[in-house]
Amino acid sequence: MDLEKQIFDAVRAEFEALSLKGIEQGIPGNKPEGETISFGDALSLAFLNPEIRRSIIEKHPEYALFIAQKNDSVYFGSYEQNGCEKSIEWTVLYREPKKLLMISKQAIDCKPFHNENTFVSWEGSDMRAWLNGEFYDKAFSPDERWRIPFSSVQPDRKNNLYANHGNSTLDKVFLLSIDEVREYFDSDKSRICLPTAYAVKNGAYEVYEGGPCWWWLRTPGYSPMTNCAAYINDKGVIKDLGGEIDTKDNGVRPVIWVDVI
Questions:
Q1: Cα–Cα dist 199/248, whole Å
Q2: Is residue 195 over pLDDT 50?
Q3: CA terminus-to-terminus distance, the chain
Q4: Is 68 exposed, middle or buried (0-12, 13-18, 19+ CB in 10 A)?
Q5: Mean pLDDT of 133-145
Q6: Rounded to an integer, what distance in angstroms lies between the CA atom of residue 258 and that of residue 211?
């Protein structure tokens, strides 16, 4: 049974479970009576109905990439989290027809933006090297890596005109900028993030045990000291002044694009 047929059957089963009519007879108002819906129609129904979509994702997480929309959860890759390696839960930030932009739901590790307190851009940072090297190799299988395209990551020059912004980069994994955080999150509350136990073990700061943490952005801070990077605090507030880049208690929320077709 091919994937399209499996997803189609899952959508149909959800509609039948909710006693919704019209699957076999077509979509009322769009299909002549007696005409069955296509795979595209089934996906459209799932896209438009959050209850249907999230129920399918919960029962069939392997279909999530194909039907997930903004704010849905997707499990992809794996990383040590609570004493063992577990699937990484991602939150969808944006959907294009053929790919998803996703950020890890939790801060999955704790790393300094750069290991030396000196002037550095995202381009030259240890964070970028780690995300696209050790983390990428460890977190994703070969079958998953081919779904992650290179992304053109642009320097964020607006926050500090005098910082070392570096050049645009091609990355598989990256951090959000201040502008992107404002674009994809609609409130401070939506930016609040819990760390995994592994991130806490590695130094992630919690305001209280089991509470939220701070997490890095790639934008240079506007502090007079240009060796700072912006971050999100435990209340979800953007700290554009930034923290010194060798700070060791900020969490990391990797961001990836994933091809779904």
A1: 11
A2: yes
A3: 17
A4: buried
A5: 97
A6: 30
Distance (Å, whole) CA 128 – CA 14: 42
Centroid of chain to Cα 144: 15
256 Cβ contact partners less than 8 Å away, ≥ 6 residues apart: 90, 101, 102, 148, 151, 172, 173, 174
Alpha carbons 72 and 101: distance in angstroms, whole number: 11
Are the CB atoms for 254 and 134 separated by under 8 Å?
no
What whole-number distance in Å separates Cα of residue 95 and Cα of residue 65? 10
Q: Which residues contact 93 (CB under 8 A, 6 or more apart)?
A: 70, 101, 102, 103, 184, 255
Mean of pLDDT values over 190-198: 97
DSSP bridge pairs for 90: 74, 104
Hey, what amino acid is at 58?
A: E
The answer for residues whose C-beta is within 8 angstroms of residue 149's C-beta and 6 or more apart is 99, 172, 257, 259
Query: Higher confidence at residue 225 or residue 178?
Result: 178
* 146 Cβ contact partners less than 8 Å away, ≥ 6 residues apart: none
